[in-house]
Every structure is written in structure tokens, then in C-alpha cells.
Backbone:
């Protein structure tokens, strides 16, 4: 092999091609005549490259000494830097885990890049440093590996760190507690007249309140890296409460009409693993007695006290009643607001998540991932969408997509499918989740036929008006999937597994205006449809797969080998689609 003599930092082999990262850029092998040469790649020339990794989609993940992380896919080059969320631009390690998430080792620790189901977009970047158990922030160049137990190993300046994703759920560390706010009568006053100074978080130090400033609201938080939403608390106001409160998720406590005296508010926190803080966080304060309770006033004003006692009691009662009425009014208004917000948030949650998943999320704060052994996934997109959409303005394009996707949403309700998401002009849904059904494959097939019918009618109307038609391709595959809710914000119900990828391949290898199904799906619905066999078709990364174009539904249905026949309502819908 001939080529320049330069320092190579890492190698990667893909078929008969060898890629190499060097101090001068990226190189690859190429056969020139009878010789194999190492030639520079036009991308990344002049950059000091440190490490190289290739994922299952054929992307090259390339680390650099000063310019962050690069992803090369054919002629497309993307870059990730500290502006994208990386902890450092000096990359020493790149490693793929069992789920092909990208782990990046740098001079500041380890970063995890979580990708979408199609391995196209970076969803989030999570940093792992000494606080997460890594015994050295600076990593050794290319000192990383994925062992046979899917456990990640990282070499650092202070040793090796072993990371097992199964241990993430257990958090042995106690949460940190901090007071975040203190309010007087639900407002934040100027504490200067009643304290020495302001401490951390703006809380007063050595607070001494007058007797009529006795309505306090304490706000606090327990910081836990694992499941922060599952942190629980116990609190007590020493000198006022007889004992600690029951375990609660509330992080705000209100005390009203606190009598004069010395008090200490204490709070404990517990993380999701049941570990309590060893020492409570405390805040001490005092409320002074009213002037009429002092000794000098009792001695000098005994007679006046007796004469004015009745009037004072009446005044005091009226003030207390006003305070109570004001507080009750505030509580009533706030309760109505909370009820309205809860109803609104529940409706929104039910609109973006399946009902069972939304209920589980409301009750437990999280939704467990579930595996389904039998599920059918449907993918669709519009052929040549990029070309004909480029001639449309943005408002028209969004309006047209909304028109078709609304038609598809109505069909998911009709045939009992769960809409997963839309990506550009692609529409993805699944049958058999979250509630399993023995007719999931037939339901998805009926959905696909319904989509073809709806698009055909819409295109006929468009053609009559002289407008561009939208040809659609649909693909269906059946198999196991894993479902779950990902993210902390903007919850998304999603599915994963090879079944999803194969359904996408069915769509991309189909033709406009036709429903392309896999051999696995055809085996489920062969008693109900007539098809056009396409023979084995080579699919990138999957070998040869049997595919079939669905011609039409059979005019009559018979029981399958197991004696299963779709219910009458489903067959009635199937008959309408067939017409």
C-alpha cells in the first residue's frame, strides 16, 4: 500500500475500504491500477483527528483535537461542538453502545448522544463526570470498549471506569436539599428591617419578625440526578408541629398565624431509591411577642389594659377574620385555577399519548417501557415530495400536509391504530399497541387501503382543479417492538425495534399508489387479500426480503388455521374499503 507517511490515530474497516484518522485529516484506501493507496478525503483536511467509529447506518463518527465531533455520511458532513451541548471540543474517544447511542470521551468527561429511531438526529446530550462516578475527567485516546455484556469501559487518567446502564435506576446517594424561597403573606418583602443579612438563596439570617408578620411560606427542593420527579419530603416546624409530617411530594409549606416564639423549620428529602438525607436542612427564626405582652407594659398599663381589653379583642377578632377571609378567597381562586389547568393538561396529555400510557404517567410520574411480540407498523410518505413541494409557499405546504394527515388521523380511529409520529411528509402508525389485538395485521392493512382510497379521492379532486397530485407510497411489516415515553419535556410516545426499520424499508421499496407488505405480514392476512408477489428483493443491511403488493380484499373471508375470524364490525369496515 502506498501513500503519505503520516501519524495515524485510528482505523475503521467497512467492506473493502479502510478509513484512517490522522494529524492531517481523514484518509481512505483506494485501488489505483494494481496498487492500493491511502488517499486524502476532501472533508476535514488540515484538522487533527483523534478517533473514528462507524455505526450500523454507515455513518462515520470522527473525533478531533480542537474542533469537536464530526459525522460523515456519504457527502454530508455534520459537526457537534460545545455549542451543541458537548462538554469539550477536544475529543479522545468515540464508542457505540448496544443501542448505537454515541458515547464521546473528552478532556472534561464522558458525553452521551441519544439519537432518534432513524439514527439521523441528536435528541439530547448528557454529560457524565465525577459526580456521576467517573474517576477521572480526562480520558485516554481510544481507550474504550463495549464488552460482551453490553457494558461500557472508559480509560481515564486515573484508571478505568465501567458503566452498566442497568445500574442507572439505583441511586445510592442521598439528595441535596436547598431552600429556594421564603415569602411573607405570599409575597417577597424587604427582610432588611428584621434580619442581620441575607444568606444563600436570598434567605434572611437571624430573622426576628414582629408578631403580626406571622404568615410564612417555605419553598425547598431536593436535588437528585436519577428521577428528580420522584423526590419525596418530610418536614416539621419545631415549636409548632407536634411531629414530622407524612411523606409527601409537595415542595412548598404554608404556616399561618404562628404564635410568638423561637422556631426551626426542618426538612428531609428522599430519592427514588429510598435513600433519605442524613441531616435535615434547617431554617431558624423567631416571632416577637406583641408589646402588650411585655413586662413593662403589664406593670404600667394594667389599668388601661382592663379598660381597653374588650375593644382590643373585638379589633383583633375582626383582623383575624379579615385575614382568614382573604386567605380563604385566595385559596378558592387558586383551587379553581388549578382545577382548570389540570383539566387542560389532562386533555392535552390524552391527545399526545395513548390513554393507558397517559394514565400511568399521571399516577406514577413515568411510564414503563413495554415489549410487544406481535405488532404491525405502517410507514407512508409522498413520492417526489421534495420536488413538488419546493414550488409551494410555506403556508400552502403546511395546509396541504395538514389536509392529508387529518384524513389519516381519522382512519387510525376507524381501524384502531395508534399514531406514533410524523416526520416531514412521512406518517407512522402501529396496530396492536398499546392494547394487543389478534387482528393487528389486518387492521393495519385496512388502514393502508383506506389511506390509498383517501389519497386517490383527494388527488382526483386536485386533478379536476388542475393542481399537482400527491402520489403516496405505503409499507407495512409485522414483528416485535418496544414502546415507551421518552424525554422530560414535550413527552413523546415512540416505538423501537427492527420491525420499525423493516416497515420503513417496505415503504421505500414500494411504488406510488400501492401498498407494499412484507412476507411476515402477508402470512397474517393471506386469507383476506389478493396480492401480487414481487419475489425476493434485496434490502440494504437486511439481505433479500419477500414483498407483496396488495391488489384487493377477497370478496369472502374464511377462518384461518387457528379458527380466528375478524369480528363482524371489522369485516363490515373491510367491506366498505373494498368498495
Residues:
Amino acid at each position: 500500500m502506498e501513500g503519505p507517511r503520516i501519524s495515524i490515530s485510528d482505523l475503521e474497516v467497512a467492506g473493502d475500504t479502510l478509513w484512517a484518522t490522522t494529524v492531517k485529516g481523514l484518509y481512505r484506501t483506494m485501488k489505483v491500477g494494481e496498487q492500493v493507496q491511502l488517499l486524502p478525503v476532501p472533508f476535514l483536511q488540515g484538522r487533527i483527528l483523534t478517533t473514528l467509529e462507524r455505526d450500523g447506518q454507515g455513518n462515520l463518527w470522527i473525533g478531533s483535537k480542537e474542533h469537536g465531533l464530526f459525522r460523515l455520511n456519504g457527502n454530508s458532513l455534520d459537526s457537534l461542538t460545545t455549542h451543541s451541548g458537548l462538554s469539550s471540543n477536544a475529543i479522545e474517544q468515540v464508542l457505540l453502545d448496544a443501542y448505537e447511542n454515541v458515547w464521546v470521551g473528552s478532556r472534561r468527561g464522558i458525553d452521551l448522544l441519544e439519537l432518534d429511531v432513524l439514527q439521523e438526529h441528536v435528541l439530547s446530550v448528557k454529560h457524565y463526570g465525577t459526580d456521576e462516578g467517573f474517576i477521572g475527567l480526562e480520558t485516554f485516546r481510544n481507550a474504550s470498549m463495549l464488552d460482551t455484556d453490553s457494558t461500557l469501559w472508559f480509560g481515564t487518567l486515573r484508571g478505568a471506569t465501567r458503566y452498566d446502564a442497568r445500574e442507572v435506576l439505583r441511586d445510592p446517594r442521598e439528595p441535596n436539599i436547598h431552600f429556594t424561597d421564603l415569602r411573607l403573606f405570599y409575597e417577597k418583602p424587604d427582610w432588611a428591617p428584621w434580619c442581620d443579612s441575607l444568606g444563600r438563596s436570598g434567605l434572611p439570617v437571624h430573622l426576628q419578625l414582629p408578631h403580626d408578620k406571622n404568615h410564612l411560606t417555605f419553598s425547598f427542593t431536593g436535588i437528585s440526578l436519577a428521577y428528580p420527579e420522584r423526590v419525596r419530603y418530610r418536614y416539621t416546624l419545631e415549636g409548632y408541629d407536634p411531629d414530622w409530617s407524612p411523606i409527601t411530594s409537595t415542595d412548598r409549606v404554608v404556616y399561618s398565624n404562628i404564635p410568638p416564639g423561637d422556631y426551626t423549620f426542618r426538612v428531609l428529602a428522599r430519592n427514588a431509591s429510598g435513600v433519605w438525607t442524613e441531616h435535615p436542612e434547617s431554617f431558624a427564626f423567631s416571632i416577637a411577642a406583641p408589646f402588650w405582652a411585655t413586662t413593662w407594659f403589664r406593670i404600667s398599663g394594667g389599668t388601661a389594659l382592663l379598660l381597653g381589653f374588650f375593644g382590643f379583642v373585638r379589633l383583633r377578632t375582626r383582623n383575624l377574620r379579615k385575614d382568614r377571609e382573604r386567605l380563604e378567597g385566595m385559596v378558592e381562586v387558586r383551587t379553581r385555577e388549578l382545577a382548570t389547568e389540570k383539566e387542560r393538561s389532562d386533555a392535552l396529555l390524552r391527545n399526545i399519548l395513548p390513554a393507558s400510557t397517559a394514565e400511568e404517567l399521571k399516577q406514577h410520574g413515568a411510564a414503563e417501557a413495554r415489549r410487544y411480540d406481535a405488532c404491525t407498523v405502517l410507514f407512508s410518505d409522498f413520492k417526489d415530495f421534495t420536488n413538488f413541494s419546493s414550488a409551494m409557499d410555506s403556508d400552502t405546504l403546511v395546509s396541504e400536509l395538514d389536509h392529508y394527515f387529518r384524513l389519516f388521523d381519522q382512519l387510525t380511529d376507524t381501524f384502531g391504530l395508534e399514531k406514533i409520529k410524523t416526520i416531514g411528509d412521512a406518517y407512522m402508525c402501529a396496530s396492536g399497541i398499546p392494547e394487543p389485538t389478534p387482528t393487528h395485521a389486518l387492521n393495519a392493512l385496512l388502514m393502508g387501503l383506506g389511506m390509498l382510497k383517501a389519497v386517490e379521492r383527494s388527488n382526483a379532486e386536485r386533478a379536476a382543479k388542475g393542481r399537482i397530485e400527491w402520489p403516496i407510497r405505503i409499507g407495512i411489516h409485522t414483528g416485535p417492538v418496544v414502546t415507551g415515553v421518552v424525554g422530560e419535556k414535550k413527552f413523546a410516545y415512540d416505538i423501537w425495534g427492527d420491525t420499525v426499520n423493516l416497515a420503513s424499508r417496505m415503504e421505500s421499496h414500494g411504488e406510488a399508489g400501492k401498498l407494499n407488505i412484507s412476507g411476515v405480514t402477508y402470512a397474517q392476512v393471506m386469507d383476506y387479500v389478493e396480492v401480487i408477489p414481487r419475489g425476493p428483493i434485496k434490502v440494504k443491511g437486511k439481505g433479500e426480503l419477500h414483498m407483496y403488493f396488495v391488489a384487493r380484499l377477497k370478496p369472502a373471508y374464511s377462518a384461518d388455521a387457528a379458527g380466528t375470524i375478524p369480528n363482524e364490525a371489522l369485516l363490515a369496515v373491510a367491506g366498505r374499503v373494498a368498495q
Remarks:
- Residues 13 and 19 are 6 Å apart (CA to CA).
